[in-house]
Amino acid sequence: MKKDIHSKNYRPVIFQDNSSKVRFLISSTVDTKENDKWEDGKEYPLYTVEISSASHPFYTGNETVIDTAGRVEKFKARSAASSANKAKKA
Length: 90
Description:
Blueprint: E1 11-17, E2 23-28, E3 34-37, E4 43-49, H1 57-60, H2 71-89
Parallel strand pairs: 1-4
Antiparallel strand pairs: 1-2, 3-4
């Protein structure tokens, strides 16, 4: 095995899914500002994510819309305006 191929910052990190509150302990080099305790009682760096395999519709089979930035409403408004413009032209 080659020596010194991993970053010095390669360590176990807790990834927490904000939408489902599921947590994973995975080795990573991601920069974190928070720490939290894991099930084994040890403290690890904590990194929060908006969506993971625990909440993504492809993996869960649920068709739920998770919209944290209002993107769906913006898309629907643009779509409605576009349809109205096409109707006026016809």
